[in-house]
Amino acid sequence: MRAVAVLLVVLYHAGLPLPNGFLGVDVFFVISGFLITGILVRELLTTGTISWTRFVGRRIRRLLPAAILVLVVTAVVAWFVVPGLRRRDIGTDVAGAALYVVNWVLAHRAVDYLASDSIPSPVQHFWSLAVEEQFYVVWPLALIALALVLNRLGRRPGVGVVAGLLTVIAVPSFGYAVWLGGVDPDRAYFVTTTRAWELGVGAALAVWCAGREASPRHTDPAGAATRAGTWAFVGWVGLAAVIGSACWLPAGAVTPGPWTLVPTVGAAAVLLSGWAGTPGGPVRLLGAAPMVWIGSLSYSIYLWHWPALVLTEWALDGISTTQRLLVLALSFLPAWGSHRWLESPIHHSRALAERTRPVLALGVALSAVGALAALPLTQAASPFRTTPVSGARPAVDSLGAATLSSPPSSDPATYAVDDWEWLTPDPQLAGEDRPAADVDRCQVDRLVEEPVACEFGVPDGTTTVALVGDSKAMQWLPALERLAPGRGWRIVTYGKSACAFADGRAQNEGRAYPACDEWNRRVVERLAAAPPDLLLTSGYAASAWDGASATRAALVRGLATRWSQLRERGVPVVVLGDSPLSPDDLDVCTARHPHELSRCAFERGPAVAGSGLPAQVEAAAASGTPLVDLTPWICPVPRCPVAIGNVTIHRAGDHLTATYVRTLATVLGAELDRAAPAHLGE
Question: Of 663, 670, 658, which Cα lies nearest the Cα of 487?
Answer without folding.
Answer: 670
